[in-house]
Amino acid sequence: MSTLEDFAGALTPSWCPGCGNFGILNAVKNALVELNIAPHEVLFVSDIGQNGKLPHYTRGNVFNSLHGRAVPPAVAAKIINRNLNVIIDIGDGGAYGEGLNHLIHAMRRNHDVTCLVHDNQVYGLTLGQASPTTDIGGITKTTPQGAPPPVNPLLLALAVDCGFVARGFADDVAHLAKIIKAGVAHRGFALIDILQPCVSFNHKNTHQWYRERVYKLEGTGYLPDDKTAAWQKAQEWGAKIPTGVIYRHERPVYEEALPVLDPDEDLEHIVVSGKIDKLITEFV
Amino acid sequence: MSTLEDFAGALTPSWCPGCGNFGILNAVKNALVELNIAPHEVLFVSDIGQNGKLPHYTRGNVFNSLHGRAVPPAVAAKIINRNLNVIIDIGDGGAYGEGLNHLIHAMRRNHDVTCLVHDNQVYGLTLGQASPTTDIGGITKTTPQGAPPPVNPLLLALAVDCGFVARGFADDVAHLAKIIKAGVAHRGFALIDILQPCVSFNHKNTHQWYRERVYKLEGTGYLPDDKTAAWQKAQEWGAKIPTGVIYRHERPVYEEALPVLDPDEDLEHIVVSGKIDKLITEFV
Amino acid sequence: MTQTLNFMVSGEAGQGVQSIGFLLAKALARYGYYVFSDQDYESRVRGGSNFFRVRASLTPVNAIKDKINILLAFSRQGIEQHHRGVAQTGFIIYDTETLGNLNVNDTVSIPAARLSKEATGDMQSANTVLLAAALCLLGYSPEDLLSLLQSYFRGEAAVNNVKAAQAGFQYVREHISIKMTTQLRKIGNKSRMLVHGNEALSLGAIAAGCKFMAAYPMTPITSIIEYLSGKAVELGMVVVPAEDEIAAINMVTGASYAGVRAMTATSGGGFCLMVEGLGLAAMTETPIVVVEGQRPGPAIGLPTRQEQGDLDFMLHAAHGEFPRVILTPSTAEECFWAAVKAFNLAEKYQLTVIIMTDHHLATSYSAVERFDLTRVEIDRGVLYSKNSGEYKRHQFTADGISPRAFPGKPGTLVVTDSDEHDEAGHLTEDPEIRSKMVNKRLGKMVALREEIRLPKLWGAEQPEIIVAGWGSTFGAIREAVTTLTETGVKIAHLHFSEIWPFPKDEVGDILQDCPKVMVAENNATGQLAKLIQRETCIHVNDHVLRYDGRPFTPAEIIAAVGQEVK
Amino acid sequence: MTQTLNFMVSGEAGQGVQSIGFLLAKALARYGYYVFSDQDYESRVRGGSNFFRVRASLTPVNAIKDKINILLAFSRQGIEQHHRGVAQTGFIIYDTETLGNLNVNDTVSIPAARLSKEATGDMQSANTVLLAAALCLLGYSPEDLLSLLQSYFRGEAAVNNVKAAQAGFQYVREHISIKMTTQLRKIGNKSRMLVHGNEALSLGAIAAGCKFMAAYPMTPITSIIEYLSGKAVELGMVVVPAEDEIAAINMVTGASYAGVRAMTATSGGGFCLMVEGLGLAAMTETPIVVVEGQRPGPAIGLPTRQEQGDLDFMLHAAHGEFPRVILTPSTAEECFWAAVKAFNLAEKYQLTVIIMTDHHLATSYSAVERFDLTRVEIDRGVLYSKNSGEYKRHQFTADGISPRAFPGKPGTLVVTDSDEHDEAGHLTEDPEIRSKMVNKRLGKMVALREEIRLPKLWGAEQPEIIVAGWGSTFGAIREAVTTLTETGVKIAHLHFSEIWPFPKDEVGDILQDCPKVMVAENNATGQLAKLIQRETCIHVNDHVLRYDGRPFTPAEIIAAVGQEVK
Ligand SMILES: Cc1ncc(C[n+]2csc(CCOP(=O)(O)OP(=O)(O)O)c2C)c(N)n1
Ligand SMILES: Cc1ncc(C[n+]2csc(CCOP(=O)(O)OP(=O)(O)O)c2C)c(N)n1
Ligand code: SF4
Ligand code: SF4
Ligand SMILES: [Mg+2]
Ligand SMILES: [Mg+2]
User: Fold this and answer.
1) What separation in angstroms does the CA of C349 have from each of A220, C323, C324, C325, D346?
2) Which end of chain D is more exposed for a tag (fewer CB within 10 A), N or C?
3) Could you identify the atom of ligand 1 that is nearest to the CA of residue A51?
4) Alpha helices (H) in B186-259, listed in sequence order
5) What is the rounded CA–CA span in Å between residue D138 and residue D136?
6) D 399-418 residues with CB below 8 A of C?
7) What is the distance between the alpha carbons of residues D293 and D221, in angstroms, rounded to a whole number?
8) Contacts of B144 in chain A (CB under 8 A)
9) Which of A66, A67, A134 to mutate to test the pocket of ligand 1 (most atoms within 8 A of CB)?
10) A4-253, superfamily in CATH?
């Protein structure tokens, strides 16, 4: 049985008081405890940004990557060790700006990892420039005339047939934990876009702003099994913002077609195996 | 009046006999002539690949970029000189693999350029590896066990609300020319995915294969003005493959909100203008 | 006032350390003092422990030196970490009512929070109370501070900060009996600009007529993007927040190809992503300017700290061989002129000019004379004139420079290619043309060598030690060499503000007669030392290196050199 | 047979120049000859003008030299371009019926298309007819050719090619009276492997136990990706065709972190995109192997041509400072061993090993002895054993090497970060830890110096000229030096197959007594020369440089050196 204490982190969070990331941190811990996963069974691969600090505030294996590059090492680690529960922590800047190409192709190939996008609609760590999800017209220091229309990550995920497409809200820890649990349990790529208030730089999409708009899909009769319905639901943004699982569907996982590797394998055995000898003979 | 002769190129094509690119080349020339655009009014920005050689086989201004990087210089050149008709020639590898991030964000911001994707569903210039649009299960030297599900570029374009989303077929030069004309005339980003048989490396999606499946949307009663209908139509791929304009809708063009620049401006005037003086005073 | 006066503002991120430090520096600059300031902060938005140092002087200063005369502290940690750095005659000014009484000497306690609350209704302006108190003790005129606050703050914030400052002045007058020996006064009648390296560089780009920027935020160059974004509409300039650095550099190349002066800015990590684009600019002979702001690496390293670790990388980034220029301005003022020169060289030689800066230079404010705009000259290089036959973008010429034309003109087609190409810009695999094109491109280095400002030896005549440096270490080295010279050491300073093409013959001449050549660099491997060795074959065996993420102090260099002369 | 026999196959892309050249080389290798071959082709799939040269010898060869003895020509252009390169005693073999009669001497005309059509029903096997004819003239056994064709072609193609070859043999016997003075025979009883550099390198990676590759196609390394992809299932290996090079290198780092040996391969342009990932591997101390196949730059350059222009870039790629290893194998055989060594050094020192190859080395076939697998040793470096307390991924140790553990084991958490970190792998901004971490990483270079194989001076004892080179120029330089030595020149060859860390003391010792040090490099700026200067302070003023996209011939080097000795 894993407990919340198992996930007590080494460092004190350096996030701003009131930051939405605290809710995400709690939801992650709760989800892992409820799934009875132990810290050594988790691999956090994190991006650069406020999001990327999360793994240091809990316990698990941690590979902190480059800005926008969390997805490639994460999916490769999963290919190598299928027993790891690979969780990606990444920001809206890293996921939908700098690193979007990786995200899209990883969703397309369908690696079995869970991707938590801390979506504060702003570049947090670099002090508040517009991100790809900054609302249209949003005024920031890099968009003094207003931001262009944002990327809708849910639509992009649907466009490449991602098998688990969801939106969570950092302030609703219990609901978010439920979504994360489902995402981790899902066989295949799970994209969870998490609305995360940034109290320092996003003065539009505040705790209050989200709270007034967010509602849960559960109980509305919405079923996440129809792609066209999902496509329409994913476009809802404004007075009402849906949270929960938007779309879910299983399809073959990339690494399941690959050989299972053993990282601890005594490599000397490979050499003396007949395989390479046979290959060499092919060149004679 | 511009004529086909105006667009006669300097070099003899080095494409394989029978390559679909010949059809694209002809369609491009025809479209420009019909639009009465002169070579000096066109800027071809090309990628690396068989596609990227096209501009050398006609006449115009040419900026041949890096693999996957045709979009950024193209949109920047358009920002600087709005009189240029900017045409991007790029392959499926460059557009949807190496350079997908640029394509998506350019469509999102909505620059007024026309992007012709020579989609042969394969990496042609590097001799036939799988590309992001290689059909699922496709066997190539890099996917000996079969390719993963392909990217559907039309869906990606719809996901970021691209205002002109179309598919053409290289063998139907007249129809393709019509689509290109419409794309060039469109205010905003026009994505034209062109089915382009590669006789050397794609032995599945051959001239014949496409011809048996391709049909024109014109005359079917389909109207390209509804995004959900477009979303559904864009998913049609198999026994029947639609060509024509899938979706069309005008929205603000990125560069129209920006100052108009004059590349020939005598720069010394900028210096003696009072603007910089005023800025300097702000630091005192 | 003694020669220099040193301040420190310390506190947590989010407590206004940066604003108060800036206002202090600005107040001094407005009085006509030379000012140098630097910043030390963590990669976080709230909490932690940051500081902002300000040194005011009657003579030019480019480094922080000596003990603190006045420490303005906003947090307990700020006091605990820095009280030992306060001079015997110095003071710590803080609010005992909120921070409690810390057992440190010579404090001036100001009930800043309470005064702010009384004056404005909340405690948000407490730091302004402290600032005013400090300036009051130093004899600064209340009116001058108030007008500074009014120009810095807007709307209600301006009103409140003025009230808070008044309260601070009043409190000191009524309750504090300490008299500072140093009193500030207006020096001459010219007030100076207060700019940090990034601001100066931005102004230089504007002066040079830069019309296009595309970039992706990254410490320490973000403030360049933000400054230019803010002014873009006013200037008729375009600043595109690109989706990534790859897009940024390639947009810049596209914009330049289309006809305007264009630049990007990034730090080492973002530059990594621009490397392929450098090659494209080189092959297409498109002029671009790239600002690289160094910070400690590898990888993410220490995002908000100082290092000069990227020289080797800038010299050799990208596959293949092509010419480039690297400028390494040493002060905020040089940042301005480096930007102007960068655009001229880029266009004249049709290549990439890299301006290397770093966290220290980018964020350190100094008070400088107004930039003399009459000295700004624009040279767009050879432009194509219609009479010269069919246009060939890459025409072979004696100096390797082909006239430029911009796309869109009747009768002129501008064709260029990232593949090797012929004069007309079309693809070719011909070995002879290939060799000629390589020679054409690399041949530009010959004339470029003449463009580079030669480093001047400064200090003792026939020195026994030469300390060489580049970029932002200028202030610390110069200060150290000055001090050492005063103590009789025969030492001189050789500083590179323009480093590539390297003036190897001249440097060889200077160094070969000196028994000891040292470098002082903010890195671990001595990158300038290696460059000097490679270019001159003169051994450079002595290094003063600092690579803990902090800038040099003159004292460290003095100590290191001191060991050598012992 | 005289010492060496030279063949050329020439024709358009798509005409089978590559296959026939390969079969010819293989036929010779199977007879026990030493074989070296190179390829020259344009960046297109059909048309143009390509060639494939094969040199067979009784003694080891690593370069192409001398006039052509037999030219197999498939196109008129192939004859027009190359007939002047045919030796006086040589022959041009082609099909006059299809190409028409070209006015060149000493031709052997074979109606290959007609014979193919008669034998197989179509003309697709015409080239095989020509190949068989050539081999028949040289006394090669028909049975041996047929068995070669049967192992090379599959299904119907095998049947047709065998028929075509038989027709070729028969035609020559019946209609051609020319007798070649040289006749081929089986040498000894051991046939050799015929491999090009990429194949050898791939086999080396397999032998070393590489389990993961991620890559994006790019000339000249695509065949590594393709070879390993084809064998992956059989080998229990994973090869991921990544979306781009950025993904590729970061996947490799992730796979290695997770526990397996992992590598990527690319050319200069793709490497540009990997540069940031290099820094990540360095900061997280993750062992990875990167193969860089050079081709002419900058930018896209000449995609299918030869250059050694990337040494400076490989030495200095990425911001910040960190250790790396660069191997520069010189022959196909060395490619195999370089791969094996690369994985060992990468894991032992927990860093990136770059294997530099180039188009010439990657695509040139040579006949080599079977790789001796008993010499392959695997060293995974220090692995963590449970007894050593709580696991710290970046623990400080005497040699800077922290035991590795892989994620997923109870009780062990593997934490690492691209930011500067403490021993446990957590973020820190502490200046002391920072300095210690820099020292830890860079300190590995000390032990690494001992791992590098020292270059051996080869040729005259006390030489008056030393020609230094690196990588694929080995064969041409060695051949040139051999010839010159035979003519009495006191010359020697110093070759670097492992170039970084640079063995500076040893090289300094070797070079300092030699009056003239030259480099021969396939680039325009003399990158090895600069490295030698920087590391040893010894001037290298004489360069033999070739940068037109083609590999050196021994003759060029002889000519260049000849000028010097005159
Ligand atoms: C290649 C590169 N470019 C830029 C940066 C600077 N940078 C660090 S985090 C960040 C943006 C953070 O925004 P986001 O990904 O949304 O994360 P947040 O801080 O908002 O959680 C940027 C631009 C970097 N580290 N690397
Ligand atoms: C950064 C980089 N990676 C790889 C390559 C090699 N390369 C050139 S073209 C190409 C793929 C071409 O495929 P596609 O874009 O579909 O164009 P096509 O040739 O099929 O028209 C590749 C991988 C390159 N030039 N640059
Ligand atoms: S800046 Fe925003 S995202 Fe970052 S820690 Fe503060 S509140 Fe959170
Ligand atoms: S390889 Fe394919 S895409 Fe390339 S020229 Fe030949 S047919 Fe066209
Ligand atoms: Mg964010
Ligand atoms: Mg393609």
Assistant:
1) 66, 9, 9, 10, 42
2) C
3) 21
4) 207-213, 227-233
5) 5
6) 417-418
7) 6
8) none
9) A67
10) Thiamin diphosphate (ThDP)-binding fold, Pyr/PP domains (3.40.50.970)
Distance CA D518, CA D498 (A): 19
Specify which residues C352 forms β-bridges with: C288
DSSP character for A170?
T
C239 vs A contacts (CB less than 8 Å):
142
Non-local CB neighbours of D199 within 8 Å, separated by 6+ positions:
A283, D223, D227, D332
Q: Using the beta-carbon criterion (under 8 Å), do C426 and B60 form an inter-chain contact? A: no
d(CA D112, CA D99): 11
- Does ligand 1 lie within 6 Å of residue A124's CB atom? yes
Contact yes or no for C273/C245 (Cβ under 8 A): yes
Instruction: Pick the residue whose CA is nearest to atom 9 on ligand 1.
Output: A49
Residue B261 and residue C236: Cβ atoms within 8 Å? yes
From CA B74, how far away is CA B87, in angstroms rounded? 8
| Residue of C35, C246, C250 for testing the chain B interface, max B β-carbons within 10 Å | C250
D323 and C348 in contact (C-beta within 8 Å)? no
Taking an 8 Å cut-off on Cβ atoms, the answer to whether C254 and B63 are in contact is yes
- Give percent of chain C above pLDDT 90: 92
Is the Cβ–Cβ distance between D437 and D429 less than 8 Å?
no
Q: Whose CA is nearest to atom 5 of ligand 4?
A: B15
d(CA A155, CA A149): 14
Domain residue extents for chain A: 4-253
Chain B CB within 8 Å of residue D45 CB: yes
A101 CB contacts (<8 Å, ≥6 apart)? B97, B98, B100, B101, D243, D244, D246, D247
For chain C positions 77-136, those within 8 Å of chain B (CB to CB) are none
Nearest ligand (C-alpha, residue D245) = 2
| pLDDT value, residue D105 | 73
What element of type H or E holds D510? helix D504-512
Structure tokens at D265: 């391969």
C183-215 exposure pattern, b = at least 16 Cβ within 10 A, e = fewer: ebeebeeebbbbbbbbbbbbbbbbbbbbbbbbb
Task: Choose from A110, A133, A145, A231 for mutation: most chain B CBs within 10 A.
Answer: A231
Domains in chain D (CATH in brackets) are: 4-175 (3.40.920.10), 195-375 (3.40.50.970), 382-451 (no CATH), 456-565 (3.40.50.920)
Q: Is the CB of C233 less than 8 angstroms away from the CB of A145?
A: yes
**Residue C351 pLDDT grade (very low, low, confident, very high; cuts 50, 70, 90):** very high
Helix H or strand E segment including D150: helix D142-152
pLDDT of residue A10: 83
Strand partners, C415: B62
The per-residue pLDDT string of chain A (284 residues; one tens digit each, 9 = 90 and over) reads: 899 999 999 889 999 999 999 999 999 999 999 999 999 999 999 999 999 999 999 999 999 999 999 999 999 999 999 999 999 999 999 999 999 999 999 999 999 999 999 999 999 999 999 999 999 999 999 999 999 999 999 999 999 999 999 999 999 999 999 999 999 999 999 999 999 999 999 999 999 999 999 999 999 999 999 999 999 999 999 999 999 999 999 999 999 999 888 887 777 666 666 789 999 999 99
From chain B, the residues in CB contact with A151 under 8 A are: 104-105, 108, 160
- Average pLDDT, integer, range D520-529: 98
Taking residues C497-505, report their average pLDDT.
97
Alpha-carbon distance B7 to B41, whole Å? Answer: 12
C76 touches chain B (CB under 8 A): no
Secondary structure class of C246 (helix, strand, coil): helix
**Is the reported ipTM for this assembly greater than 0.90?**
yes
